[in-house]
Design goal:
Order of helices and strands: HHHHHHHHHHHHH
Radius of gyration: 19 Å
Shape: globular
Strand content: under 5%
Number of helices: 13
Distance between the termini: 27 Å
Structural class: mainly alpha
Largest sheet: none
């Protein structure tokens, strides 16, 4: 799609990344190529190619809820590059309009915007901050807001670093990023911070379901929506 120009026809914003050079000593690919390599790294991980080298990441990526959000976040994580400083924030702002235009609903747009906005956060914290500081981990969990966001960010961080250049993702960085992920998961399980309002998200899903079904099956859907718990709507596609 990229080679034939289809991708930039569908998403004009992506055209700006074509042959765009990252001016740093690490990236060996142009931004568009880096993005496609990162997508390939997710696919290779999901296919089990690295189950021996990175078993934890392989398990996480295979159990991800809504993996399409991870792929969209990866495809557009650098969409804000080449304009000004702080490309993650600019990219997230661009994505809000782009995601809506592509037909995604508000929760999908928000989950993907999180990945675009925070795609450098996990690698920065793991490599430059004290990940044994409980306050730092709790703040990181507040930034993530949900376990699902944390899981997708973990895999995206891996693929993003793998796609910079050979050897950038190594045993040392893997150990740091994975330890931060594990500590954050434990923090979520303990509830040491105020998490996202899951009930409000479940109610938004209920409302979307009820307003999009055909009138003929509306009574049955209303009964389902009124009977099933929040977890059903948060975990079932």
């Amino acid at each position: 799609m990229h080679h034939l120009g289809v991708l930039k026809a569908l998403v004009p914003e992506f055209a700006h990344l074509e042959c765009l050079i990252s001016h740093d000593p690490f990236h060996i690919y142009t931004v568009d190529h880096h993005t496609l390599v990162a997508l390939r790294e997710i696919e290779r991980l999901r296919d089990g190619e690295f189950r021996d080298a990175w078993p934890h990441l392989t398990e996480v990526v295979r159990e991800l809820p809504q993996p399409d959000l991870l792929m969209m976040g990866m495809l557009f994580h650098d969409i804000g590059k080449g304009w000004a400083d702080n490309h993650p924030a600019r990219g997230a702002a661009m994505w809000n309009d782009l995601g809506t235009r592509l037909g995604m609903h508000e929760d999908e747009v928000a989950a993907t915007a999180f990945l675009v906005r925070e795609h450098l956060t996990m690698s920065h914290l793991a490599q430059h901050r004290d990940i044994h500081d409980d306050r730092l981990v709790a703040d990181f969990c507040r930034t993530c807001g949900s376990v699902e966001n944390l899981e997708r960010l973990y895999v995206l961080t891996y693929a993003d670093m793998r796609a910079v250049a050979p050897g950038v993702w190594n045993n040392w960085r893997s150990m740091l990023v994975t330890e931060l992920y594990v500590r954050a998961r434990e923090c979520f399980e303990r509830g040491d911070f105020v998490p996202e309002d899951r009930r409000a998200r479940a109610d938004r899903i209920r409302e979307r379901v009820q307003t999009t079904v055909a009138a003929a099956i509306r009574p049955a859907i209303d009964q389902l929506v009124g009977t099933m718990p929040d977890n059903y709507f948060l975990s079932t596609p």
